[in-house]
Amino acid sequence: MRILVAEDDDLMLKTLEFRLKKDGHEVIITHDGREALEKIESCMPDLIITDIMMPYSSGLEIISAVRQKYANRIPIIMLSGMGQEDVVLEAFQLGADDYITKPFSPNELSVRIKRFGLIKVGHS
Amino acid sequence: MVIELHYFNLAILFFIVVILLLIGFILIYMHLRIKRSHKLHKWKLMANLLIRKAIFYEETEDDPANNIPITSRTKRLLLKNSHFRKLLTDELLNAKKNVSGSSAENLKHLYIQLGLHQYALAELKNYKWYIKAQAIQELSIMGLKENLTSVYRFTNNANELVRMEAQIAVVNFYGFEGLRFLDVISHPVTEWQQIQLLHELSHTTENFSGIEKWLKSENKTVVAFALKLAGNYHRFELHDSIVECLEDLDPNVRLQAIISLGEIYTDKTSEILISRYLIEDIKHQMAIVKVLQNIATNDDIPILLDQLNNENAALKLMVARTLAKIGADGFKSLQHHYQAQQYPLAEIIAQIKNELAL
């Protein structure tokens, strides 16, 4: 799967990249919302993993833009901090498919991504 | 004329030397800054590489101690360079906040393996409060429960920030059980501290005890916090003890008791609150009316209608809203009030109609 990761924390971004590559995915990393929106356009990922709080454009703006442009073609998993329940609800209303709360286990994220992969295979 | 020219030349020479020195200083300073920034970048890469290795480290039978492989260069830097140690610690803490499960355990293991906890424990003895507070936070984030005793003694520290970090740490280690510092604390638990503690407790789900004792504490901020706990966790068995707090001399305790009764009420609660209403000040009266929005019944309509004569417009609006929330009878009585066609009740009723329509 081609996965786009949007996360402003460099260490987390590299950690996610490492894990996802280890799982055999193609990974596109972006450090902020604006870069993510540009890369989504040019790379057309199969899945997006986005943090909520990011510079320039937030995770919510990414979800909204993707849903407007590509409807439900690209699944989106968001990464949210503890106590951001309101934001999570808003993200679901905007069209996010899943969320994972920080701190999270990279293994759990890996399993959730596999699920999206299976759904995609099922659909095709 | 010759002497004047000589002084002029000297002045120009002096000026040129100063400029050259300044340029030299700026160049050296820039060079050092760039060198430092490169060094920091390199250190950061080293730290991140090590942390990533730890996050994805899997136990092997080759090393029974399950130690994460560390390069000799990292070890050397750790021993002799406090800046690198600080950078690595900060990166580790940042990573620990973001991952859970076996990855988080691996990071804790790495932290101990590198001996970084020893530095934090030594910093607990530092006389500067902010170093102490930072060390407590570090131990808390890394989840070093085994150091509870070292941290626990700071829960009643004279410095508010040290105290707060220690209280959060013990709650982070032991959940509700960590709250036992409330038994003995003599300093106030500020509103901000209470919010922080409640946030920390929101991650735990186990049952807990002790609230009854805290409701009788000499420390009024502890009583207020206990009331919040009772309300938030719906401890219905404490209803009567909370009602007793309505008589407390501390206005904050009384206010919190009113709010908590809005969460754990019985068929007698509205009557009790209404009996307090007339002897309370406006802030508490507003709180009572707000709580009544959820618990008032048709029996409370007459007393609420009386309160519509109050001069305070905010209270009047709150009372009108409460009457509307009681149900059809309450709203009908509001519309039939003798001031219903006059300002400001007419406007208030129009607003409530809009709210009900939404």
Largest sheet of chain A: 5 strands, parallel
Major sheet details of chain B: none
Gap from first CA to last CA of chain B:
94 Å
Radius of gyration of chain A: 13 Å
Structural category of chain A: alpha/beta
Spatial extent as radius of gyration of chain B: 32 Å
Strand content of chain A: 15-25%
- Helical segment count of chain A: 5
Number of E-type strands of chain B: 0
Assembly state (oligomeric)? heterodimer
**Class based on secondary structure composition and strand pairing of chain B:** mainly alpha
**Side-by-side strand order of the widest sheet of chain A:** 2-1-3-4-5
* Count of separate DSSP helical elements of chain B: 19
H and E string of chain B: HHHHHHHHHHHHHHHHHHH
Estimated helix fraction of chain B? 55-70%
| Strand element count of chain A | 5
Average residue-wise pLDDT of chain A: 86
- The first-to-last residue Cα distance of chain A is 14 Å
Element order of chain A: H for helix, E for strand: EHEHEHEHEH
Proportion of helical residues of chain A: 40-55%
Any overview of this molecule?
Chain A is 52% helix and 19% strand. Chain A is of the alpha/beta class. Chain A is globular and about 30 Å long. The model of chain A has no long low-confidence stretch (mean pLDDT 86). Chain B is extended. Chain B has a domain at 77-208. In chain B, helix 3 runs antiparallel to helix 4, helix 14 (269-277) runs antiparallel to helix 15 (282-295) and helix 17 (313-326) packs across helix 19 (345-357). Chain B starts with a helix and ends with a helix. Chain A binds chain B through residues 9-12, 14-15, 18-19, 22, 82-83, 102-108, and chain B through 48, 51-52, 55-56, 91, 94-104, 199, 202-203.
